Amino acid sequence: MLRRNSAKRRVKTPDDRMTLMEHLAELRSRIIKSLLALVLGTVVVFLAWDPIQRWFEGPYKDLCHQKKGLNCLTNGQFIVTDPLEGFGVRLKVAGYGGLVLALPVILWQVWQFIVPGLHKKERRYAVPFLAASLTLFAAGAAVAWFVFPKALDFLVSYSGNVAPAFAQTKYISLLVLLMIGFGIGFLFPVFLVALELVGVVTPQRLAKSRRGAIVAIWVVVAVATPSGDPYSLIALALPMCLFYEIAILIGRVFVRRKATTVVG
Fold first, then answer.
1. CA distance 215 to 221
2. Strand blocks (E) in 81-156
């Protein structure tokens, strides 16, 4: 009788032993650590603004120096039309940069909070998904940075007879939006594979919808790309079409493994 009761009371996960107040205390601790990492990252980026600003100016200065016949009024330096604009941009970039620097710490705190309540199978899938998401987002942002000079050249070349003098706010906002958009776009296969794992879609269904999906990708990217240039369109739409095919292949592998496990 005692053995039966002890078996019924067996704790499946460490999370089962925690009370509500302990959960709240744990959550508060994780949030505080994440906020401290965010504040520290923001301060670091704020103090390192000069090299970061020169890094942002790079494509602009290269355009002014390399493009023949282009009369850049400021020789590749930003202009500000508002006394608060420069400082406001610095604060905004510091916030975004601080979040990027703190992201590993934040994700680690989130992971440490939820992992006790996950089953073994869920933990096995969570780590690859998290690693793939971070890697693909970073890859997308990097592609956006490398394609931005071409996009900038296109936008200036087809603006007519103009003398570029870019405002700091609009220039940096365009570049940051482009990097975030590419990062989100590169998460496309993670989203599709997740839908396949939970059974919302199947690899066979994705394969049958391939033509419509490819057309939809090109249309959505053309509308959503903030710069509207063909270089950004091609640099984002082509990888997303490739990711669509990769997601189908990954889904088929999961389906075969699941069938093999059931048969075994």
1. 10
2. none
